[in-house]
Amino acid sequence: MPTIESLVALSNERYPRADRPWQGGDTLKNVVVKVRELDGTSYPLVIGLPGDREVDEKRLETALAPAGFEPFTEEDFAAHPELVRGYLGPVRGAAKVLGENGSAKVRYLTDPRVVSGTRWITGANETDRHVYDLVAGRDFVSDGVIDVAEVRSGDPAPDGSGPLRLARGIEIGHIFQLGRKYAEALGLQVLDQNGKLVTVTMGSYGLGVSRAVAAIAESTADDKGLAWPREVAPYDVLVLATGKDQAVFSAARDLAAQLDAAGIDVLLDDRKASPGVKFTDSEVLGIPTIVVIGRAFATGNVEIRDRATGASREVAFNTAASEVLREIKG
Fold first, then answer.
1. Are strands 27-36 and 119-123 parallel, antiparallel or unpaired?
2. CA distance 237 to 159
3. What is the pLDDT of residue 92?
4. Letter string b/e over residues 187-216, b meaning 16 or more CB atoms within 10 A of that residue's CB
């Protein structure tokens, strides 16, 4: 059974538990990478973690810094026949990274969840074989602990404040460390805490304006389209004329002109398109205030819609400009 899924399925078929079905978290997955030190030396690192988790490469990168890591290749497995691909179990006697002759030894680190007394199904370090009821602390020990498993919603927070909640984010800024290359070229020096001249370490901070706009768009949009906050909206008001009555289009142009004269950014939709197309486009554009001049105009009214909340109300056409101004200016 070369995968966690097939191992769990076989375990439930042949060796069912009395209390509950076997799950991926009952297995001990052992993932191997090659660690490369700054001096160019390298060694295999095996990471033991629950089988329902994956190694988070970003966390691993941080945990190993300043050393780096790279995937374990077919050539690496050939050089380490004790590491049986697909059936890798805990690696015994791996405390020393380098052997007496300088050859690379295997280092074995485990996830914090692999505590003494926990029981596991895991690889037997032999092709096509697994071990049941392998107990941490009794049957194997690791060289240490490494917390690099993927983080999930509901996991306990590191500071003990409760369960974690995951949310999407957008990176809108960077801090770049430039080092001392340019500082040395420019002779940039300052006095340190001991009063000695030292070369400064340069850096810069970059803020992505376009990313900030993207963050606003993603956080305010709904299933209909954009819903811009008024502060960043391309227009304050969309005046939308519907129907075929020329009086409606004339009134829409008149209202747009009034709002424009009052210093309001207005977009006028007087296209010869169906009302459905115009309403759909108005929702996609996300302009905060939408004034619809259509059927209600027959009785002298227009409809004012709030794009963000979906709320709407009818007002008299001759007061529409002042109503919109009041709404915009709060």
1. parallel
2. 47
3. 61
4. eeeeeeeeeeeeeeebeeeeeeeeeeeeeb
Q: Answer yes or no: do 253 and 188 share one domain.
A: no
**Enclosing domain of residue 289:** 237-329
The H or E element that residue 321 is part of is helix 320-329
Specify the CATH number for the domain of residue 264: 3.40.50.800
End-to-end Cα distance, the chain: 67
**Dist. CA 51–CA 110, nearest whole Å:** 12
pLDDT one-digit tens code per residue, 133-148: 999 999 999 999 999 9
**What is the predicted pLDDT for the residue at 277?**
96
- CA–CA distance, 292 with 296 (Å, rounded to integer): 9
Question: How many domains would you assign to the chain?
Answer: 3
The alpha carbon of 272 is separated from its chain's Cα centroid by a whole number of angstroms, namely: 43
What angle, rounded to 10 degrees, do the helices at 320-329 and 246-261 form?
A: 40
91, 183: one domain = no
- Which amino acid does the sequence have at 65? A
Q: Which helix (H) or strand (E) covers residue 330, if one does?
A: none
Residues 195 and 311 in one domain: no
Residues in the chain: 330
Please identify every stretch of the chain with a pLDDT value under 70, giving residue numbers as ranges.
Answer: 92-104
| pLDDT for res 330 | 73
DSSP category for residue 180? T
Asked if residue 285 is part of any domain, the answer here is yes
pLDDT of residue 101: 44
Q: What are phi and psi of 119, to 5 degrees?
A: -115, 140
Report CA 105 to chain centroid distance, whole Å: 36
pTM over 0.70: no
Radius of gyration for the alpha carbons in the chain, expressed in angstroms and rounded: 33
For residue 264, give both structure tokens. 């309001």
